[in-house]
Amino acid sequence: MSMMRMSAAALALLAASALPAAARNQIQVAGSSTVLPYATIAAEAFADNTDFAAPVVEGGGSGAGIKQFCAGVGPRTIDIANSSRPMTQAELADCHANGVARVIEVRFGYDGIVFASGINGPDFALSTQDIHAALAAEVVVDGRRTPNPARRWADVNPTLPAQEIAVFVPGTKHGTREVFEEKVMAAGCDASGTRAELAALDGDKAARAACTALRSDGRAVDIDGDYTETLARVDSNPNGMGVFGLSFYENNTTRLKVAPIDGVVPTVASVASGEYPVSRPLFFYVKADHFGLVPGLKEFAEFFVVDAIAGPGGPLADYGLVPDPQLAAVQAAVAAEHVMGAD
Amino acid sequence: MSDPAQTAPRPRRSLLQTDAGTRRRNAAERRFRTYGAAAILTAMAALAVLMFTVFRDGASAFVQARATIPVVIAADVVDPQGNRDPAEMAKILTMSYSRLLDQALTREIARSGIQVGGLTQRDITGFLSAQARADLRRAVLADPSLVGQEIEWRMMTSSRVDAMLKGRITREMAARDARTSVAQYDLAMALRDRGVVRAGFNWRFITAPDGSDSRPEAAGLGVAILGSFYMMLIVLVLALPIGVAASIWLEEFAPKNRLTDVIEVNISNLAAVPSIVFGILGLAAFINFVGLPRSAPIVGGLVLTLMTLPTIIISTRAALKAVPPSIRDAALGVGASRMQTVFHHVLPLAMPGVLTGTILGLAQALGETAPLMLIGMVAFVTTYPSAPPQGLFDPASALPVQIYNWTQRADPAFFERASGAIIVLLAFLLAMNLIAIWLRRKFERRW
Q1: Which of A116, A270, B11, B292 is deepest in the core (most CB within 10 A)?
Q2: Which parts of the sequence are annotated with region: Disordered (chain B) (predicted)?
Q3: What is the nearest CA distance from A8 to chain B, expressed in angstroms?
Q4: pLDDT confidence of A16, banded at 50, 70, 90?
């Protein structure tokens, strides 16, 4: 009997305490795992320096974060979506359709994408052409599309080591993959003239798709996990080479050796100057509809991009972020609550 | 058995001499014993390797290098207006306080006469934890009379310096590491030799909340332990009464018909459902439908309750079954009602089995990660949840997802933290299993 009374009391307690859970006083953030470390650093500094509750930050990937963000308005939905690529028109339309009318886009810096191999392996000096020729699903040989025959890096470019091709690339759920396809594969395809050859064979549209398609014979492996998984794969495979974010590489230089691309070694400086070709902007999207509803939301968005945080010498740059040269304009846009689609 | 008289007489047959058949049987038995021993040895070796690597990588997480140096709280840095107004001083961000720490460390190096070549500003700033400036700012804002004074301040060093003292980073590695330098290594060793930097037990690792990617040395398990505790509380409060009530009804009162058969089969099936399925259910039912908050222990607790219920029901029913029918017969014989029989006699005798099953179910729930990933528990949470019941709705982390979370981070220092967290989790599991064994030993009755 006492058991039953206890369980009834417990259920009643739960039901009663479920009621006041509607409002919330901490900001909720989710999205890109590349942006995640920057968001946690900013969230921690925000809690250190203000009286607001520390924001809760989740990962999950850019696409997943934006989907949650656009699910609607109210305390059940997240306030900020992190993304390592710009929000698409379709995603913005989805947001608007679900009542999320005021979305502020904040570009807070840049990140380089680097190619790195095990610390004990040979040195690589790559070009986007080499990478495309090594990883493309199909190449043009004697005027015909053929499955990529390259087995070793030396098959692609005789100056490269005669090492088996084994590259670990972020999977398609990562924003990094999109940048990799656009800035490396497509760029290499253009530079080597393969795109022109493909277009002559099958037309422009097929050429665009063929340029970014990765080979699926096991020499290019999709990694759906985080960079730590890529690092573990590179560690265990002496021929392995991985695609990493610059800040991840900077944290693990004792285990990784970076490959210069087109002769430029990736550093915060070379990415900032635009010399290093493979970089992308990092964003977060703020739900301005939640201003006033979630305490500290606008303050956090502004705090994230102040010079002391996102500027040169700030904690984000210390961690590996390439500061945005136009940070002042970004700060002004956040302060003015400049929403997307307003102009 | 054939009559021995009818078999042909065989020479030299004796019990003392084994024939071919007996030798084969004996050899088969020896082989079987060897297989058994080999199986056990393999399992033990795997466990030993696992434990060895976890402790090798994780034991150092419980030790942390700290520096004790005098810091001058310069008024022009922390209170440029000079009016000691806390509201004005709060406008000075933590980044400014790192200047005070840099100056203090530089003075300390000069005072103790350490000569290190090639020491850059970055080496100095990166020597101390980013947590130190936040702590210093909090202390100054709490007590503005500190401004202008020199205080002896004890603070954590950065994770790289910590790793140098633990021997995880050698001088050669420091040269390759973009986040540190040989000069910083030499400085760390010199300050250690002078007793300025010392390693001590790291209580923060157990009590402090999670730290961001730029301060792994400050990351602790406090929020995760509290979150796991809240979830276990919910599981205990919900799963034990519901599970015991369900088992008593099924075992003692339910008629044996098709419906109860279906229920029984379903309970057994539920026990075998992969835990991720419960996570999907939790996301759909508790967060999207009921509207409970994400990352909250209440949702995690409810999901784990659903997952633990079949385990508790199955073990409780087994414990009830093990109570001899004679007990029930005797109680009914002296005129007890069936409910009195159950609650006065059967259930008390089955209690050790029930408690053992419950604790083992809780231990399983404590280590469960997959369902929590879907309901937002894999989050960066640095605020402790408040006391229950409100705290059950505050964001929190949990021990196993904290481990998962740390293994995803770039800084190698988080790998050490993750292994340390595994040790903490194993300690909790071991303690729970020991309690279960103790309860069984203490209250077990044999018939």
Answers
A1: A116
A2: 1-27
A3: 9
A4: very low
Nearest to A108 by CA among A217, A211, A48, A32: A32
- B241 to chain A, any CB pair closer than 8 A? The answer is yes
What number of residues does chain B have?
447
The whole-angstrom separation of Cα A195 and Cα A206 is 10
Q: Sketch out chain B's domains with CATH numbers.
A: 67-202 (no CATH), 222-443 (1.10.3720.10)
Q: Which residues pair with B69 in a beta bridge?
A: B153
H/E stretch holding A142 reads none
B130 to chain A, any CB pair closer than 8 A? The answer is yes
Instruction: Give the integer Cα–Cα distance in Å for A40 and B214.
Output: 9
Q: What pLDDT does residue B307 have? A: 92
SS3 (DSSP) at B388: coil
Give the closest of A13, A227, A251 to B389, CB-based.
A13
Q: Which helix (H) or strand (E) holds A9?
A: helix A2-18
- Sheet of B63-72, strand order: B150-156, B63-72, B197-201
**A40 contacts A54 by C-beta, under 8 angstroms:** no
Residues A182-200 have a mean pLDDT of 88
Average pLDDT, chain A: 87
Q: What are phi and psi of B391, to 5 degrees?
A: -60, -25
Cβ contact B278:B303 at 8 Å: yes
Closest among A78, A63, A68, A67 to A26, alpha carbons compared: A78
Question: What is the structure's pLDDT at A1?
Answer: 42
For residue A198, the distance in angstroms to the closest alpha carbon of chain B comes to 39
C-alpha B163/C-alpha A15 separation (Å) is 49
Maximum distance among all Cα pairs of chain A, rounded to whole angstroms:
85
Tell me the ipTM for this assembly: 0.86
Look up residue A9 and give its two tokens: 């009391």
Decide which of A225 and B212 is more confident: B212
Those residues whose C-beta lies under 8 Å from the C-beta of residue B91, and which sit 6 or more positions away, are: none
Interface test with B, best of A251, A253, A306 (most B CBs within 10 A): A251
Residue spans per domain, chain A: 24-111+281-335, 112-279
Q: What's the CA angle centered on B337, arms B331 and B340, to 5 degrees?
A: 75
Burial B340-373 (b: 16+ CB within 10 A, else e): ebbbebbbebbebbbbbbbbbbbbbbbbbbbbbb
| β pairing state of A80-83 and A220-223 | unpaired
Do B185 and B172 form a contact (C-beta atoms < 8 A)? Answer: no
Token pair for B241: 């009464």
- Do A10 and B214 count as a contact with CB atoms less than 8 A apart? no
**A17 and B410: CB-CB below 8 Å?**
no
- Calpha distance A113→A130 (Å, rounded): 16
- Please name the residues between 259 and 318 in chain A that touch chain B, using a CB distance below 8 Å: 308, 314-315, 318
Nearest CB to A315; choose among B214, B294, B408:
B214
Mapped onto helix, strand or coil, the DSSP state of residue B378 is coil
Structure tokens at B213: 């990617």
B3: left (phi over 0), alpha (psi -120 to 50) or beta: beta
Residues with Cβ within 8 Å of A322's Cβ and at least 6 positions away in sequence, in order, are A109, A110, A111, A112, A246, A268, A271, A272, A279
Q: Map tokens 């995690």 to a residue.
A: B300
Angstrom distance (rounded) from CA B44 to CA B300: 33
Handedness of CA B268, B269, B272, B274 (dihedral sign): negative
Q: Is the overall model pTM greater than 0.90, yes or no?
A: no
Residue A24: list chain B partners with CB under 8 A.
Answer: 293
Sign, CA torsion B279/B282/B283/B284: positive
CATH top class, domain A24-111+281-335: alpha beta
Question: What CATH number belongs to A112-279?
Answer: 3.40.190.10
Q: How far is CA A131 from CA A126, A185, A212, A214, in A?
A: 7, 7, 11, 11
